[in-house]
Amino acid sequence: MHSAWPLFAYNRRVQRWVLFCLLIGLAACSSSVHNKDAIRQGVIDHLSARKGLDLDLSAMEVEVSSVSFRENEADATVSFKPKGGEGGGMQMKYTLERKADKWAVKTKAEAGGSPHGMSDPHGGAAPGGELPQGHPPVNPPEPGKGK
Description:
The protein is an alpha+beta fold. The chain is built from three helices and four strands.
C-alpha cells in the first residue's frame, strides 16, 4: 500500500492541473467577444460594408459609449467624432447579434426598428400637423406667391 501513494499524489496533481486549464479556457472563450472593442469592430465592419456610404472611418474617432449584453445580442450606443477636431459629433444606437466570434449589426427588420436608433422626427404626429410655436414653416411658400 505504501507504493501506491506516489501514484495517487501524481494523479491528484494532474487532475488539479487539468481542472485549472479547463476553467481558464472556459473563461477565455466565454468572454472573448463580450467587450466594447468587439462591438466597435462590428459597427465599423457594418459601416465599411455599406454601399453608397461615403464615409472615411479613418478620420473619425469611434467609441462605444455604452453596451448591454444579452445571450447572443447586444445594444450599444456608439459615438462618432472627427479626429483631432473639436465639438461636432454624434451618437448612434445599434442592436448587434453575435455570429460565431464576431458581432454583426442587425438590420432594421431584425432589430424591430432602426438599427441606428432613429425615431420618427415628427414625434409620431401626422404629417401636416401643427408645429410648435415659433417653428419655421416646413414647406416655405414658393417665390412670387407671397406669404
